[in-house]
Amino acid sequence: MKTTVMLAAVAAAGLAASVASAGTLDDVKARGVLNCGVNTGLVGFGAPDANGHWSGFDVAICRAVAAAVLNDPNKVKFVPTTGETRFTALSSGEIDMLARNSTWTFKRENDLKLTFVGVNYYDGQGFMVRKDLGVNSAKELDGATICVQTGTTTELNLADYFKSNNMKYTPISIKTDAEGKQQFLAGACDAYTTDASGLAALRATFEKPADYVILPEIISKEPLGPVVRQGDDQWASIVRWTLFALIEAEEKGVTSKNLDEMAKGTNDPEINRLLGSSDNLGSMIGLDKEWAKRAIAAGGNYGEIFEANIGASTPIGLARGLNAQWNKGGLMYAIPFH
Amino acid sequence: MADTDAFFRTEMLPPKEPPLSQRGVWKWMHENMFSSIGSGALTVLGILFVLYVLASAFPWFAHSVWHADSLRQCRDIVHKTWGPGTDGACWAVIRANWNLYLYGFYPMEQIWRPNLAFLLLLVALSPILFSRLPRKMIWFSACYPALAYWLIWGGTLWISVTIMAGFAVGALVLRFLGRIAGTALGVGGAVLGAVLWWLFVAAPVATALADIVPLHLTFVPSDKLGGFLLSFITGMCGIGFSLPMGILLSLGRRSDMPIIKTSCVLFIEFVRGVPLITLLFTASFLLAYFLPPGTTFDLVLRVIIMVTLFSAAYIAEVIRGGLAAIPRGQFEAADALGLDYWKAQRLIVMPQALKISIPGIVGVFIGLFKDTTLVIIVGLLDPLMGISNAVRANVAWNGVYWEPYIFAATIFFIFCFGMSRYSMYLEGKLKTDHR
């Protein structure tokens, strides 16, 4: 049977049409694999290792969704996308969802007809300078040359910030992070600006990280989150509530270690509803009642994923900051599972 | 009469050495480097510049580290060996990611397959490249694409066999129908026969044969391909398929038949008017809008098709240039000999046109091979950006910059330079004029 299918695929110039179905969920189930758009390689957020096994903070979301829908966190086909191609890939149906540090903005959601299902990382744009420059605040950067990536929201934010503070600057346009690092280290620019998470990750790779400081000002809001196409609300719900399940699990203290224990039933009715021991929430989004349990089992709860990929114990060493739970001074706030 | 001792030499004087300024390295330098004040100044400046570049790059190359597990370890080794504050190349990054660069994510235990495919590629290419080898080897070259497809992607061999059988069916139809009904009908019948074979006969036959003799290799999906393996597959397919296609297009463009001529002109001008990136982008994303939902169409196959079409349009124009350079008398001589169109092209026109076009054709091929790195735009991991990005995203190697670029540049240079030298060899061998 498989031979026939493969042969038909080759013979008809690689066309292997399957029955078209109404929803993304049915498509994914029929295919047996989730097509997830990710970065071509961003340290900590998504990258393949030498064996082609993907891992990272964004990648973990893909795996959680695959675990919830297909019962296997490894049934994901990771499609590397560039900044230019990511939304086209999603709109055209090449990928089912996108988890690639994409900023949620009005235009992207309404002009490109995409649905950002939530926020998995609250980022913001910052500045990095050499320590011997003696600059302690972004307000002192008047007249500086600044390395900035072209075609990003970063470039616009930079212009806005300097304009509103009545300061002048000379932009040095760069294309990739690696190039920006090279220019900055070579002294082509006084300051390097990008998302604060990126700055921290970049500084960790320097030969002498202590010679550089990240300025305290955060000049923009960059809510990054997973994206799906508009027009399939059920699929959007699945991805959205998978993300919420991971965040809720952290809030309620459900970890990959005590998951089986908790799933037997606890005194907290919300945990019971989440893990499917009392209610059957999964059936309302086309899944079974243990979907959230599997999603959490894939890589742990939100806090565990954070710590394992980009947290303080990793070389990237990001603090939780805005990404702490709402009751711990952060913005991570899962909608109740009622 | 004065008694003078007449003196005359009986032997020649040995020639004197020319003055110092007129010989050896001084003469050469005087003529080539300091022939005038301007050129002397430029020479000095040039030498200073080269020395400056060497002085800044040499320590970095001299402090090369070949064995390390991470960039940090590399730097530690450099500092320990050559003193703190020194800088050195960390080639360990290439060493540690060697398989990634060469094969992408191809399964480790199956690596022998692309290796064997590469060796067989050399065998298959040799009768095409060197005319002194036995001509029978060309049959192996003809079968090579199917064999390579089976080796690299796996599955059952019978798929490849039945696909190749389709060409055989086409050839048989052409032979018999062509004799009865003429070349034009013969070609049409051959294409129809081959397509019918592929659509209706090939699948059951392959399944049946696979049941009897299962020559099966583990299936490797396209997204496991990457690095130089991917560049090679796309490059070699593009080169192999675009040459015949380009020949047909160039003939079509000079044809008297309006439909053929117009469609060839439209195709060539459209493809040449659009950047390769646009074509790749279309193949990867926009195609999904036109195909029925749920259709899958292998990405690498799409890229190969687009690269082939792109380079075929350029080849067609290069060969048209060669055709235009052939004197009219050659065509008339072919007519006078009573050759039909295809025989005239095959025996008289094309050998001359292709010979003239060799530098241009090889130029297009070299460009095509380097253009294969553009596949990063559709998310395939090319050796220049894709794999390097993935390597840099690894915590251990995050921060390397020059080494991956230098490595990729070296490999590309070796192959492109090789192609260029071969083209010069071929030009010299085929040179028959008296200029």
The CATH H-level homologous superfamily of the domain at 223-430 in chain B: MetI-like
| CA-based shape of chain A | globular
- Level of helix content of chain B? over 70%
In total, the number of domains of chain A comes to 2
Q: How many strand units of chain B?
A: 2
| Biggest beta-sheet profile of chain B | 2 strands, antiparallel
Oligomerization: heterodimer
CATH class of the domain at 223-430 in chain B: Mainly Alpha
Listing every helix as H and every strand as E from the N terminus to the C terminus, the arrangement of chain B reads HHHHHHHEHHEHHHHHHHH
How are the strands of the largest sheet of chain B arranged?
Answer: 1-2
Q: Evaluate the radius of gyration of chain A.
A: 22 Å
**CATH homology group of the largest domain in chain A:** Periplasmic binding protein-like II
Biggest pleated sheet of chain A: 5 strands, mixed
Assess the beta-strand content of chain A as a share of residues: 15-25%
Order of helices and strands of chain A: HHEEEHEHEHEEEEHEHEHEEEHHHHH
Backbone CA Rg of chain B: 30 Å
